[in-house]
Structure formats: structure tokens, C-alpha cells
Specification:
Elements (H helix, E strand, L loop, with lengths): L12 H19 L4 E5 L12 E5 L6 H14 L19 E6 H4 L3 H8 L2 E4 L4 E2 L2 E2 L6 H13 L1 E4 L13 H10 L2 E8 L1 H4 L13 E6 L12 H11 L5 H22 L1
Parallel strand pairs: 1-9, 2-7, 2-8, 3-4, 3-7
Antiparallel strand pairs: 5-6, 8-9
Helix pairs in contact: 1-2, 6-8
């Protein structure tokens, strides 16, 4: 790799590699030390093609969710299945990995700007800006940027566009899936909201049960399934369909809360 070789977004890969190494070393104990990240299904990651893969996930913090993905993805690609022991897996990180983020978030300070260089596809949200609800057209340049990233590698997106649970899936993600036909891999995370602040930069609580589940790629009929069909598949895949509201409080959440109390104790 040439010293000044750049990716399609103009980022110098040598700089990006060192940023990922440094940020990975600084954040490793947040997922293996202060808290233990329980990983499931990461063997799926190492069998994926190098490009045109779209990861969809629920969203709990601004930055910790993506940081965990950098750890899990690179650990898996380096043979560490379902664990992130020994941060050496970040010495040669996957450099063609990107994530979709709100432009205003990635420009909100020095740390977000540094994070942005590691692979942010910064887009303008069409429904919210500076804490207020808005209604504006999708920028075609944002769609083009996502296509460019898929052509180059992997893209992580949070189709709800917010860290608030059980909010509706944004149809833009379904349109991207139908138009560009990527392999779609769901991820479900939990515990991040309890262990980190909303930005995901500060450890709020230690010894919290964090989970990270990688699911099998979705089976999608790109030609015949409607946008509504794909949206519904996404809702179920990342466990954010309204039906989960009926199941989770009565069964799953009670059990998780019991386990969390035991671990906190």
C-alpha cells in the first residue's frame, strides 16, 4: 500500500489505518475489561465477500455501537470468532469499512471529526436537524456516497436513524437495498445504553451485560419484494418490529434485568 494511497472518499489509507489502531487500543477495555461484550454469530463475517455488504443494526449510542463493530469485524476476519481477545487484530484492520452517520453529529467536535475519518458516510437527515423535526428532500449526493462505499467495501447503517428504540424504519434503507442489491446482514446489540452515555464516549456503568449478535444474511427478492416488505423484514431482523414491544417487557426484558442485577451485585 502506497504511503499516500486514498480511498474513494479521498481519505489517506495510511492515516486511516493508524487512527483505527489508536482508537481501537483506547476503546478495547470498554468491551473487554470494564464490560465484557458477548458476541454471537461472528463466523458469518469472515465468509462475506469483500464488497457490496450492508450491515443493518439497531442503535443505542452515537459512537460505541460503531466502535464495537470495528472490533468484532476485524477480530473475526483475523480468526477470533465470537471474542475480541488481544487487540492485535487491529494491526491490519479492514480499511474498506464505512458507516452511515448524521453530518451534524460528525461535525459536532474534534473527536467526532477524528471518528469521521475512520469511515463515516456523513449524510443530511431528512427528518431531523439540530434537535428539530424537519421535512426535506433526500440529497442525491448522499445516495451516491452510499453506493460508492458499497462498491468499495462494507457499509454499516442504522435504519431507524435514532438511538430511541422501536422507532420506525426509514424507507431510504429499503430503497438502497432494492436498488443496489447488497448482501444484507442484520446485527442486534444490547446493553450499550446502560454501559455508555448517549454519545457512547463515556463509560457510565461497569460490569454491564453487553451483547452483539450477527445474524445470517436476509433472503430478499430484490425484483419482486416491495419497499414495505423490505422494511418489515428489517424490523424483524433487528428486533425493532412493534410486535417485540409485546414480547420483550413480559419475558425477555425481565430475564435480562434479573441477569443484570446479578452481575451488578
Amino acid at each position: 500500500m502506497g504511503l499516500f494511497k486514498r480511498n474513494p472518499f479521498g481519505h489517506i489509507l495510511f492515516v486511516k489505518k493508524w487512527l483505527i489502531r489508536i482508537l481501537g487500543a483506547l476503546t478495547h477495555r470498554r468491551f473487554r475489561g470494564f464490560n465484557e461484550l458477548q458476541i454471537e454469530g461472528s463466523d458469518i463475517i469472515k465468509n462475506l465477500p469483500d464488497t457490496n455488504v450492508l450491515f443493518i443494526s439497531n442503535h443505542q449510542t452515537y459512537f460505541a455501537d460503531v466502535i464495537a463493530m470495528f472490533h468484532v469485524f476485524n477480530a473475526s476476519l483475523n480468526g477470533r470468532l465470537d471474542n475480541i481477545k488481544n487487540v492485535g487484530y487491529l494491526w491490519n484492520p479492514k480499511l474498506n469499512m464505512y458507516y452511515v452517520a448524521a453530518k451534524e453529529t460528525m461535525k459536532s467536535g474534534l473527536i467526532p471529526k477524528i471518528f469521521a475519518y475512520t469511515g463515516s458516510i456523513s449524510i443530511e437527515r431528512t427528518w431531523r436537524s439540530e434537535g428539530k423535526n424537519v421535512n426535506r428532500q433526500v440529497k442525491m449526493s448522499d445516495i451516491t456516497s452510499i453506493k460508492k462505499a458499497l462498491d468499495d467495501g462494507w457499509v454499516v447503517t442504522f435504519p431507524q436513524g435514532t438511538t430511541t428504540p422501536f422507532k420506525p424504519i426509514r424507507k431510504g434503507t429499503a430503497h438502497i437495498i432494492k436498488q443496489y442489491k447488497p448482501i444484507v446482514v442484520p446485527i442486534v446489540i444490547d446493553g450499550f445504553r446502560r454501559s455508555f452515555d448517549k454519545k457512547g464516549l463515556r463509560v457510565k456503568k461497569k460490569n454491564v451485560y453487553q451483547s452483539f449478535e450477527v445474524k445470517a444474511p436476509l433472503q430478499i427478492d430484490y425484483e419482486n419484494e416491495s419497499i414495505a416488505d423490505i422494511v418489515e423484514k428489517i424490523e424483524y431482523a433487528i428486533e425493532q418490529h412493534p410486535s417485540f414491544l409485546k414480547v420483550i417487557p413480559q419475558e425477555v426484558l425481565e430475564e435480562k434485568e434479573r441477569l443484570n442485577k446479578l452481575r451488578d451485585w
